[in-house]
Each structure stands twice: as C-alpha cells, then as structure tokens.
Specification:
Strand content: 15-25%
Structural class: alpha/beta
Strand order of the largest sheet: 7-6-8-9-10-13-14
Order of helices and strands: HEHEHEHEHEHEHEHEHEHEHHHEEEE
Distance between the termini: 34 Å
Largest sheet: 7 strands, mixed
Number of helices: 13
Helix content: 25-40%
Number of strands: 14
Length: about 400
C-alpha cells in the first residue's frame, strides 16, 4: 500500500527546502559515491489562457508527487525532476511540446495533457519514440480504443498512452442516468463545442439518454471562443427543454448558462468534467442549480486523499489543485512506480534504455493512490470507473451522487 509519510515532509515543502535539482550529473550512471541518476517527468497542460486554472492545478500536483518521491528517496539512486510545458490548450503547441520532451533523453514519462484534442497530436510522436504518457484528464474514448468503440470493436491505438481519468463512454452514460433517473428530466437540448472532448461527450450522452427513454428536443454547435449565445438561447426557449446538456468547457459554459437564465429559462445547464471547475460559478452569476459530472469521488471525501490535501495546502501553491489534482498526483506516481520497477528489475540501476523499461513496467503498475487503487486495463484506461454528479449550491460545486454507471 502506498501511503507515505507525507505529513512528515510538510515543513520542508512549505519552507521551500526541497528542490528538483539532481544530486549528480544528468547521465546514465548510478555510481556508488552517492551521485544519482536524473529522471525527468514532463508535464503538458494549459498554464496560460482560459483553462489555466485547471492546467496550473495539474502542474502543481505533479510537482508535489515529484518532491515527495525525492524527499522519501522512493527510488534508490534516482532523483526526479519535473519539466512543465505550456500547451495553451492548442493542439499545434502540444505537438511542439511533444517533440521537446522526446528530444530530451532524460524524459522517461509525460503527464498530461488536459485536452483530448491536444492529446491527439501528441500520441503518435510519443508512441514512435516509446515515451510513456499518462493523462489525468483526457476522457475521449477514441484516444485509447479507436473509433471502433462505438460499434463494439475497440482496438488499442497507442501502447504508450495511459490515463487515470475514465472515458467519455463512461461519463456520458453516468450523466444520462443521473439526469433521467435521479433528476427526473425527460427533455434535453444538446449543445457541443465541436472539439474532440465536447463532441464525444455529447454524443455519448445522447446515445445513453435516448436509450433510457429521454428526448433530445434540439441540437446545436457553438464556437467555444464565443461569449454571446443569445441566438441559440432563443432557440432553446421554443423547445420546452427541461435542461441543457453542454459538451465543452467552463469558459464558454459559464456565459451560456447565465444567458440561458437571463432569458427567463429557469433550467439547469449540465456538463462534464470540463465545466467542473471553481471558475465556473465565478464566471456565472446564475450558476445555482447547474450540474456537472467528474471522474471519481471528490478527493475531499476520500480518506486516501487526506495527506495529499494537507501536503498541497502546506506546500504553499497559490493555485487550487482543481478537478484533476488527485488524478494528476496518481498519474505522476504511476510513472514513478514504473521507474521503480525498472530499477529494481535491473540490479538497482536504471536500464540503458530507460524509456522501454518504464513502458514495459506500466502494465504491472498497481498501487493505492490519492483517488483509489490505480491500475490500467488492456487499453491503457484506468480500472476505476467511479463517477460523481455535482450541483452548484451557494456558488460552489457540491457532490450529489456517486456510482459506476451501466454502459451498453
């Protein structure tokens, strides 16, 4: 069981006495004089721009995992270093970042990205380079199982891709079950932002909602960069929809919801983990009653997350860990565990082909993490399919219901 003495290192973290600098030179030796081999873990996320609240939470949580591993000397002879890059939520930038990680021989794993559309540009280069990637946030089902998953013909796409977040197939089914069976909403208007994540999530929701007997009374697409949605709001008003389901992220979802309410329609907007951010109610004066789903249980309710929460707080990060903090810590620790397995399987030294050794070890990784038991199935997907539905109450997301949904 991986429950380490996190509280014991809190003071050192808060005081800034832990650094990410390697004790020895960055080479492939693991000498007996105390020098350590540096292993770099990359992080790719939007660190600037509209989605930076989520991206900075990802960066900080990965940083915390690396500092914890170094303080504990969790892997003998190894000093971990974090290398964060900003993808600005842009696929083209993510692709450039992938090449930067690939070109650094000390990078043995990459955590991220946030956006499924960015990941689509990173997966093949990483696969060609044999570089392990673990996303804490990508939910697009096709990233692991290909487009054939829709017809029951799932095929793993890239051996190097893993994730600690569950898929939109799971999330869409859970949202449909919650809205139809728990909330009693039978008529929904459906909108997506035409991006990989939003469109895929909306499609999964539609399939599962109509199977249950729900009625989709209208569909639309929006530009996620727009902030004036009055035209589509007027269309929704004519349909008698009892809720709006939105496949997309919080920067557009927040004004869409507010304009919906401003038009006199007292119906909730529901979305996936892309809107489950503390920024959503800040950007939306009429967010009360809106709904979201997110992967796993809220970390605040998990005994396994108490040390993570305490350590994050005392480390002094100015940004919240947000929706993906626990999942990011676990994604980073999965790479750390793989490095440990690779070292232990090579007489206590990092193998000369570290990337191959880490990738080979990923299928054996299993540990008790912040968000629960961490392991991966034959597609690289997390084996933890638990989801939670949230409602905005008093300007904050409040958990309402958790379950593993029925799919198919």
């Amino acid at each position: 069981m991986r429950q380490r003495s996190i509280i014991a290192i809190t003071a050192a973290l808060a005081a800034g006495s832990l650094t990410l600098t390697a004790c020895g030179s960055r080479d492939d030796s693991n000498s007996s004089n105390g020098d350590k081999t540096t292993v770099v873990i990359g992080v790719d996320a939007p660190l600037t721009g509209d989605l930076s609240a989520l991206g900075l939470g990802i960066q900080n949580s990965a940083d915390l995992a690396v500092k914890t591993a170094n303080k504990e000397e969790y892997v003998d002879g190894i000093e971990f270093k974090l290398e964060p890059l900003d993808d600005q939520a842009q696929p083209s930038v993510g692709q450039q970042n992938a090449q930067k990680f690939i070109s650094d021989k000390d990078v043995l794993g990459v955590v991220g990205p946030l956006n499924s559309s960015v990941s689509q540009q990173m997966q093949k280069p990483f696969n060609d380079a044999g570089l392990t990637q673990v996303s804490p946030a990508n939910t697009g089902t096709e990233l692991t199982q290909g487009d054939g998953w829709k017809t029951g013909n799932s095929v793993r796409q890239f051996d190097t891709f893993f994730r600690t977040a569950t898929t939109d197939e799971i999330q869409g089914a859970f949202a449909a079950e919650y809205l139809y069976s728990k909330a009693g909403i039978k008529k929904v208007y459906l909108i997506d932002d035409q991006k990989t994540y939003g469109a895929g999530l909306a499609a999964s929701f539609k399939t599962n909602y109509t199977k249950l007997g729900g009625q989709i009374v209208g569909t639309d697409h929006i530009n996620p960069d727009d902030r004036d949605f009055n035209a589509v709001v007027a269309k929704i008003k004519k349909t008698g929809a009892q809720a709006l389901y939105y496949g997309g992220e919080y920067p557009a979802a927040a004004p869409l919801s507010q304009q919906l309410k401003d038009s006199g329609q007292n119906i909730p907007l529901m979305g996936g983990d892309g809107i489950y951010s503390g920024e959503f109610p800040k950007l939306n004066k009429k967010a009360e009653g809106d709904l979201a789903t997110s992967v796993g249980k809220p970390v605040e309710q998990l005994p396994s997350a108490k040390e993570f929460i305490a350590n994050y707080k005392n480390a002094g990060y100015k940004d919240a860990y947000e929706a993906y903090g626990g999942l990011t810590y676990d994604a980073t620790w999965a790479i750390i565990e793989a490095v440990k397995l690779a070292v232990e399987g090579n007489d206590g030294k990092l193998p000369s082909d570290g990337r191959k050794a880490v990738l080979d070890a990923m299928s054996k990784v299993k540990f008790d993490g912040v968000t629960g038991t961490i392991s991966f199935d034959e597609f690289g997907d997390t084996t933890n399919t638990l989801m939670t539905a949230y409602k905005v109450k008093s300007n904050a997301w409040t958990p309402e219901y958790s379950a593993s949904p029925t799919v198919g």
